[in-house]
């Protein structure tokens, strides 16, 4: 795990992003977006992915319509995207490497944890429930439950309050630039985990970078 930051504070709670962090959903999002635009004679680009990743639907949809040069409404496009995504979600999405290792460590140490995601609450509950993960978290905070989505800090400030800790004592695990910015602005300590659709170059604002959820350096922050 790489760092150029001061030592981490004592971690008393952990907030997990979901898409691209708990699950490999960003790969499915990319696949759906490629097919969605191909059906319209368009190409899905890295610029489009960067404009959408980690952001709420109210921001991601218009960004896709604008960058792709489409004339249809963002709402209609997102509705079709959700239909395509939901048709594949139960078989094409998997937990990210190291997830069960870090969850086990947190449970043994009695460190409370929550999910704070830009995804709508009901979809997040469905996905976490399908994989038997709901019992591992104190609560799930969806993007439709806050008034301002990432990169605004509202979701992580809310998560810290519900976890009963000051933001500075909360570790946030993220994979997107928008999510990292939200966590930093909330005052949390942030570890980012890059992947193919969110490379390390866009995550420099994080306090640390880790290779995966069971990165030894990350586990050491939690007393493992």
UniProtKB/TrEMBL annotation:
Coiled coil: none annotated. PANTHER family: 2-DEOXYGLUCOSE-6-PHOSPHATE PHOSPHATASE 2 (PTHR18901), PSEUDOURIDINE-5'-PHOSPHATASE (PTHR18901:SF38). It comes from the Bacteria. InterPro entries: HAD-like_sf (IPR036412), HAD-SF_hydro_IA (IPR006439), HAD_2 (IPR041492), HAD_sf (IPR023214), PGP-like_dom2 (IPR023198). This is HAD family phosphatase.
């Amino acid at each position: 795990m790489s760092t150029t930051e001061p030592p981490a504070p004592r971690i008393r709670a952990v907030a997990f992003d979901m898409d691209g962090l708990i699950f490999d959903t960003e790969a499915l999002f990319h696949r759906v977006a490629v097919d969605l635009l191909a059906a319209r004679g368009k190409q899905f680009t890295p610029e489009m992915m960067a404009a959408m990743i980690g952001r709420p639907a109210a921001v991601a949809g218009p960004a896709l319509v604008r960058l792709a040069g489409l004339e249809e409404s963002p709402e209609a496009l997102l509705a079709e995207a959700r239909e395509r995504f939901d048709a594949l979600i139960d078989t094409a999405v998997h937990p990210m490497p190291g997830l069960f290792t870090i969850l086990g460590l947190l449970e043994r140490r009695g460190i409370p944890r929550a999910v704070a995601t830009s995804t709508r609450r009901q979809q997040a509950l469905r996905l976490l429930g399908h994989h038997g993960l709901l019992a591992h978290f104190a609560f799930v905070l969806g993007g439709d439950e806050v008034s301002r989505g990432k990169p605004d800090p509202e979701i992580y400030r809310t998560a810290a309050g519900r976890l009963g800790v000051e933001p500075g004592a909360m570790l946030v695990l993220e994979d997107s630039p928008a999510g990292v910015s939200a966590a930093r602005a909330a005052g949390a300590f942030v570890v980012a985990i890059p992947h193919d659709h969110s490379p390390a170059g866009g995550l420099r604002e994080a306090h640390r970078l880790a290779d995966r959820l069971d990165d030894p350096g990350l586990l050491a922050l939690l007393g493992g």
